Amino acid sequence: MLSYPPLRWLAPARLLLLLLIAQLSVLAASVAAESSQSAPAAPADADTEFVYVPRVGIQVGHWHQDQLPSEQARIRRDSGTYRQGVDEWELNYMVAERAQPILAAAGVQVDLLPATIPPGYRADAFVSLHFDGVDPSIADLRRGWKITTPYLASPNSLLLEQSFREVYPAITGLPYDENHGSLVSVRANYTFAWYRFEHAIAPETPAVLIELAFSTHPDEWILINEQPELLAEGVAQSILRYLEQFDPYQTLNRRPPYYPRYTPREPMSLYDWPNDQSAAIKQIAPGNRLLVMREQAGWYLVFVRGTWDLGWVPAEALQRIPNDHRNR
Ligand SMILES: [Zn+2]
Questions:
Q1: pTM of this prediction?
Q2: Nearest CA to 201 among 54, 57, 55?
Q3: How far does the centroid of ligand 1 lie from the alpha carbon of residue 267, in Å?
């Protein structure tokens, strides 16, 4: 007689197994139901449409500035403006944390970034938030907001800047601060300086830096503290205006202008302005590598590689360095 396992214990075991399978399938069904709630499946007979989710980085200026990597150690102490016991980063954060949900509700993926930028950060827009401030003796004289792109601005960066110029003042009522000599150095802000640092945005990331208002102006200080949501609305709606016009597939619009590396033909001056009557900043010589940041009427605005010297040189006095494609 063939020996079978006694049915006495086999039957309950089978029953248990069946119950287990049944429970697992109930579980699987409920998981499927839950995930279909968060991402509804396209109807099987419809054309599945790919939805592009734009990604935007909002940098809270000076947030954890003291934690900048060693390549940016010299600016770790730049904590920005300060007023009545409040550091600039706290004001920047107040606006950023209110802008984020407005953008998220519109389907935008938002990264809130501290001072340290992930190496080669990529996004469809990068917006660095700051407030300006001046010495108390002239606090009443300076007010308003201002914005800049990087020196090497892609068409998308210019579009982002234009969207802010159209929308931000309309929402906040703030005037534009035309008296902004300080923006010259802001264009070379470390977050934009992919030609110098690893912890910077990728060259293809459209970017602006905005000074939202003057924390030192009495009226604007009240606005900042009593209506931060108005400034946040201004930021979020400016970004949404940009995204309406932004085409993620037009990769040419992401590219900043390209210049080859140059060196002077002979020893010469680096000038303060694009004419040789202006002050000479320093002497440069063949062998100095020059990174072009801007072009104007036959002159180049250049960084002297490996230094922080920025000045103008006539383009005709330069020669191209062959086969120099290094970014930094
Ligand atoms: Zn700042």
A1: 0.79
A2: 57
A3: 37
